[in-house]
Amino acid sequence: MKMMRVVLWVMVFGMITEALAMEPLRLIAPWTPVIVKTNASVVEVGVWGRSHKFAGAALPTSIVTAGGDVLAAPIRLVGQVGGKDIAWKRGGNFVFHADKAHAIISGWQAGDDLIVNTTTQIEFDGVMRVDLVVMPQNKKAPKIERLWLEVPLKRSRASLYHFWPGRWGGAKNSGAVPDAGLQLPFKPFVWLGWEDGGLGWFTESDKGWQPQDPKQPIEVVVSGDQTVLRLHLLDSLPPRLPLTYTFGFQASPVKPWPKNFHEWRICHGASYGMEKKPLKAGEKKTALDRAAELGVKTLVFHEHWTPFQNHPLTTHEASLKSLVAASHKRGIKLLLYHGYEFSSLAPEWGEMADETLVKTASGGYTGGYYRTPEQRDYIVCYNSRYRDFLLDGVAKALARYGYDGVYLDGTIEPWGCCNERHGCGYRAPDGTLKPTYPVFAVRRLMHGLAERAHPRGGLVNAHQSTCCATPTLAFADSYWDGEQFGGGELTRDLLKQLPLETFRAEFMGRNFGVPAEYLVYERPPQWTFDAALAFTMLHDVRVRPGGVGQPLEKMSVIWKVMTRFGVEKAQWHPYWEMKPLATAQPESVKVSLYVRPSTKGKNGRTLLVVSNLSGDQPATAQVKLDRAGLKLRATAGAKDALSGETLGLTGDVLTVPVPPMRMRMVWVE
Question: Among residues 126, 118, 190, which one has the least CA distance to residue 158?
């Protein structure tokens, strides 16, 4: 009988946790198991690199990441009931369940008029899902005039912002937090932080929100030493209690920074036959041979590897296997394209399309990209069964074709969807259909792709534009950003269109814990590959070359210098450090550097990236080095690491001529 009760409890517990956690994701590397500590008044949940405390409250009172607490005060619900400010008089929490992959914390707080219950699920990568219920304390519902969720951050740890969706043609969704703060329309993801970390907030919809100004329900308020993210849940119409809100948090960086990402050496532009066709008439060397010679270690095959957009199978199986084998023979990994679309040419279209595609409120499809063979490709929603179709297909294709991982085009983005057939969209009180943003479903897809690729030593590489939503981006090994400037915006006024703070907020990756590369098209009216390098290399970000051509020739030299220097064993010191090891004049010149201190039998060495960010004025940069900090000997010399040219180093000052919007790499030893 006791055994039956135990079995019954296990079954019931499983049903409860499944309902709450939607089958929690399995723990995968590089994350470490969740650790839970409790005492009489505090619950602490630790994940890799971060900890979350609940001290006598339903919501987090402390979130530590990158060596310090990002919160200036506990996350809180504030507002008014019956003309008086809400006073929470009681509160607490307890651990409902914990294992190595996740923990579930039950919480409550109460005042004279309201009770709030929370169920907070914290997963191994630091995502916190909060289901919050607001109820009346008594049978008679109180009059709530205002209810805001506020996240008070330390101002020093909330100097940068990023939100999604953004827009193409600019970077207004990322940058430095203005002193006047921000007023935003509804956004499903908002991140506030600094160059080394931060805190993201997210939700799948604005269901239940009743802001006074529907155009500005989200604020970032800067006051004193705090920067407060304020979410206007209620401040207009009388609510119908109980109310339920679901939202989440995730502190960043989300995972350990990979030491060897410089050695992935990704090149875009694989094609069928490149392992057989001579690069030039009369030569034996093929394009694949040349790619290997130039140091490529990862090749990306774009959408035309299969005739059906975003499909896991191809009709060119023999050609694909030949390319995979030839790449592996040369030590090159091959990633295949998968996107965010469903092809009208796909065999499954008739059965699955209407059920699985993203729909607008009026019932229309979104997207409609055209490609050959002639087809239209519409945006698919991964909150539908297409997610499992793709995951199963990729797993089988990896085994069948032998390739090494996936290149994802827009796949991390939880596109707004109103397709009620698969559970997206919601009805407002007036019956209007409004979109939901399926963060948790896309997150499940990304986790599944990583789970399938990583055991093979493969990579998950995500291309996106304006979207660094960490709950989904966390499972990518790296991301590729910048295509939103494809209209040539950066050729007009670069630093105005893409301020340095904006680059650090969105395009650098260190603040999120995911390495980044930059996309630039080598064609008018784009800025050139060389100009892009001047900007990106300052941030330890490389420009990805496409095809076996001049950009790859340029990038090859940089790759080889960085390998020879040993940047994976070096300390990186960016230009914005409080106590820089190198400073430069004139003002248009910035310097970041890699430092390898001297060891037994080996001299110390420094690799500097010296960039002139003036669009039209050359500079003779005077770079002052901190000799003591760099531990440079009096006999240290300097040379251009790419050309070998000797450069003048007199005392502490290095002289480096740099053309407009160009960079030079300087090796000091």
Answer: 190
How far apart CA 411 and CA 309 sit, in angstroms, is: 13
Q: Name the DSSP letter for residue 173.
A: T
- E-only strand ranges, 253-395: 266-268, 298-301, 333-338, 341-343, 367-371, 375-379
Is 21's pLDDT higher than 70?
A: no
Distance (Å, whole) CA 156 – CA 131: 29
For 106-127, the pLDDT digits (tens) are 999 999 999 999 999 999 999 9
pTM, 2 dp: 0.95
Does domain 261-569 fall under CATH 3.20.20.80? My reply is: yes
Q: How far is CA 327 from the centre of its chain?
A: 29
In this structure, are residues 351 and 421 in contact, taking their beta carbons and an 8 Å threshold? no
Cα 466 to Cα 198: distance, rounded to the nearest angstrom = 18
- Could you tell me the CA-to-CA distances from 397 to 409, 447, 473 in Å, in that order? 18, 17, 23
Domain boundaries, the chain: 31-252, 261-569, 573-668
Respond yes or no on whether the N-terminal peptide bond of residue 211 is cis (omega within 30° of 0). Answer: no
| Nearest CA among 116, 119, 113 for reference residue 22 | 119
Position 22 scores a pLDDT of 60
CATH code for 573-668?
2.60.40.1180
177 Cβ contact list (under 8 Å, min separation 6): 158, 159, 160, 161, 192, 220, 222, 227
CATH architecture of 31-252: Distorted Sandwich (2.70)
Q: To which H or E segment does residue 320 belong?
A: helix 317-329
Q: Is 547 left (phi over 0), alpha (psi -120 to 50) or beta?
A: left
